[in-house]
Model the fold of this input.
Amino acid sequence: MRWTWLEATKRCGRACCAILAASIFAATAAFVLANVSAEGPPAPPEEPAPWVKPAIDGVLDLFKQRSIVALGDAHGLAQEEVFYSELVRDPRFADEVGNVVVEFGGEASQDIVDRYLAGENVPLTELRRVWTETAGWIPGATSLGYINFYASVRSANLKLAPEHRIKVWLGDPKIDWSTIHSFQEIQPYVLRRDDNFFRVISENILEKRQKTLLIIGIGHLFDFVGGPESLSDKINKTYPNALAIVSPFIGYIEPECNAKFVAQAKGWPVPAVVGPVLGTRLKTELRLPGCNYIPRELVEQLKKEAAAVPPSGVQLSGKPPSADDMIESLSGRLSGANGDALLYLGPPETLTQSPIDPGIYIDPDYFNEESRRLQCCTPEGKPLDWDQLLQRNSLVPRRYGLR
Done:
């Protein structure tokens, strides 16, 4: 595929000898090349290994370089939600960071969460507004880990003097759901979500030269082809080098691909923060050839969406994306390869779905309002399925994933 004459010189003139000499040289060169080829091309320089730290240490160390550390939230991932509570309970967090901006809370309820986190007894029906009066969650942020997070901050704060307590900022736009009755009416709130997150971070933290943890869905941190400017772009334009993004590793679709990654992660603490992604072999391990993050069913759905007309009220910036563009963009988000560091929560087959707040199917008023929102204000217009919610909240942990 790549790249025996001695006696004849005795009968040959000068020209012939020159030809034979050239032939011998060519043969020698071919022999050398053949032997080099047999051993294969020179190996490329080995990529440097990333650093690996216990997750809390890794996040706090990132704050030594950046004012904002964003944890990309894989909605409903139990192990990641547990980590949020562990992080704010660490005594170093209140002292070294002190602020958290969350997606799973509506700004209209800031006074309610402030009172609760300060130790005031707030009735559950009032406290619930914190995670249900949101524009971007229909139904509300019902994963139990999100609700436990507020309780964990309260627990940490009760051990601290008021001036040293953790402040949680609710980032979702203010909304009054009693005035919302259609998909078109909810769209203005949804479209300004990233602008609202940016304003909360800028006005309350960065302009005061403070630091914050940001817990927000992965999709807000990376551009999606055909979509609006991402939150991270907004931050980086105004506050260069202020933001570090830590993405969770949720795993490949193929078990054999996960096995390759987990073999490289042998000996890592769980959970761990690993980085940097760029410039180390971690980037390669997150985009292994022939390995995928999107299940086939979702790929087919993306193809249909690319060919469909957007629902009334949805605005696209620029040319509608192709199916291939959408698949590549989503793969980049899910892989963690576009982040600054990786949150490793253990082998993908051990990751589980967070249980949901049982109040949504026990409290009729709660259930009926969330069902109304689904019917009036989503493209599908389907009500909540009470029995499906109950089954989803099985006591037996269910494996997490898009599968």
Observations:
- Residues 53-390 form one domain.
